[in-house]
Amino acid sequence: MKNMNDTNEEYDLYYVPEQSKWPIIASIAIFLFLAGIAMILNALKINSSLNTGYIFLGLGSILMLWMLYGWFADVVHESRSGLYSGQMDRTFHWGMFWFIFSEVMLFFTFFGALFYVRVLVLPELAGISEESTHDLLWSKFNYQWPLLVNPDNTTFKGASSFVNPFHLPLLNTIFLVLSSVTLTIAHHNLREQNRSAIIKWLFITILLGFAFLICQVMEYTEAYNELGLTLNAGIYGSTFFLLTGFHGAHVTIGAIMLLVMLFRVKKGHFESDNHFGFEAASWYWHFVDVVWICLFIFVYIL
Which CATH number applies to 85-301? Predict the structure, then answer.
């Protein structure tokens, strides 16, 4: 395959990679990872003397990290070898766009579940809506949000209090908003090819991202141990951990992506007019920030 760095007009040329083992390894890693989480959540064990769920989760995580490292390395090598044409670059941009769009739809379903419960289900159970099952099911149930007293509060004991939005969640909001600013500054310096400034601002962005994750771990610990807010605490606990947990996973992925970009910048990768890897990681991080702002408003405040 010949070099295609300067072939913008040769739209018919397209790099076709060789067969790769990474997709099948990724499939196995995802299966083990999800199976491990399912076993842990449902207290399932294949062998009573072994924590099978944690073994599956650990193996899946190791395979996933190996796959990400190997696949990233292959793509970087192909890019640095000049195998990608202008058409390939455009497909990368569109691919990342549709990937982020799919992530938007994923969170849209989570927010949709939250709004459905708050706007339709709970008011109906409390007798607020016209067509109500209030008298037939739980006549003593009163609607409030966050829902601390469940309709069946004996089976699903609600939390003792809600998470204070102006404590750790507010601090995390500041962290992520600042990280978007520092990442934008790093991107601007990349266009100017100011390597030292790129490294400095990108490093600050990564620190802010990991500070967010540390604060979220602290928040979860406080919610579990002091507030009694768990996955068994009713719909408030379920929606809270579903939305914030998935977002935290996305922050973790985004921070890893930015860490990879930092290593690549230090190795002299990326040019002012050729830095899609950095650009894609930036898009993803800004998406994560926007989702958190929505979470802070609709999960913590309203």
Answer: 1.20.120.80
